[in-house]
C-alpha cells in the first residue's frame, strides 16, 4: 500500500505529478474547509510535503496529523516549520540544502550589480524614451574591488564569498561563531562589519533568532554610501527602519528578494529608483527547482524505504 501523504500549499506541477504517482497524495489546498478536513482525516497521513517559502509546517498543522512520521520540505529555510514540535514527536524533517547554493548566490550578485550599476533603472530610462530624447543617465558605483560584508557564512554565504573573488572584492563576514578553514576574516560585531562594508549581503537563517538583526543602528553604520542586499528572509530586516533609511537616503540603496509580509511590498519602495525588488525568486531556475524537487522525492523515498532521509534538517 502506498503511504498516504498530505500536500500543504502548491508545488511545481512536475513535482505534484510525481508525488501523485508515487504516493496516495491529498492536496489540502483543494479543501474548501481545511480545518474540517483535517479534523476528519488528519490521522490518515504519515507524510507531509510542503515548501519552505510557502505553507511550511506550522504547529497547528503538525498537531492535526497525529500519525505523522515524516515532513519533506521544498527549500532550505526552516523558519516556517515547527522543528521543536517535530522533534518532540520524533517526526523526521527533510529539506533541500546545497542544491540551491549556486542560484541563490547568483541572485545575490544579480541584485548587487543591479543596484550598484543601476541596470534596471537604466532599462526603465531607455524604455521611457529618455535616452532617445537626449537625456543622459547618471553614474553608478563600482563593484569590482569593493568591500563586501556577508552576514551569515553558511552554505550559501560561502558560495557568495567565492563569487566575490571573481570581482576582486575584499570580503569579511559576521556570524555568531567564526567558520573554521575559510580565508575570509570574521567580524564579531555586526555594526563594525556594516561600517566597513560598501555592500552588505544578508544570508543568515530566518526565524526568531535573527528577527530584525538588521535594524536602524546597522543601517546607519552602513551609511549613505552603503548598499544592502537581502536574499535571506524578510524578517531578518526591520523593514520599517529600512524604508525610512532608503526614503531619507541614509543608505545608498537596496536589492531585496524577500520581504516581511510577502507578497506585500511597502508602497514607499515602489516609488524609489535606488531599490531593486524581486518576488522571492533567488533559487528560481529550471535546473535548481528541478534538483530541489528531486531532493523532496528522494527524502520521502529514502524515509519510507529505509527510515532515513537524504537531507535531514533536524
Ligand atoms: P546555513 O544554515 O548553511 O547558514 C546560515 C548562516 O546564518 C550560518 O552562517 C549561521 O552562522 C548564520 N546565522 C544564524 N543565526 C545567526 C545570527 N543570529 N546572527 C548571525 N548569523 C547567524 O544556511 P544556508 O546558507 O543554506 O541558507 C541560509 C538561509 O537562506 C536559509 O535559512 C533561507 O532562509 C535563506 N534562503 C533564501 C532563499 C530565497 O529564495 N531568497 C533561497 C534559499 C535560502 P552561526 O550559526 O554561526 O551564527
From TrEMBL:
GO terms for cellular component: cytosol. The keyword NAD applies. CDD domains: HPPR. Keywords: NAD, NADP, Oxidoreductase. InterPro entries: D-isomer_2-hydroxyacid_DH, D-isomer_2_OHA_DH_cat_dom, D-isomer_DH_CS1, D-isomer_DH_NAD-bd, NAD(P)-bd_dom_sf. Residues 109-282 form the D-isomer specific 2-hydroxyacid dehydrogenase NAD-binding domain. Residues 45-311 form the D-isomer specific 2-hydroxyacid dehydrogenase catalytic domain. One of its GO terms (molecular function) is NAD binding. Belongs to the D-isomer specific 2-hydroxyacid dehydrogenase family. This is Hydroxyacid dehydrogenase. It comes from Acidovorax carolinensis.
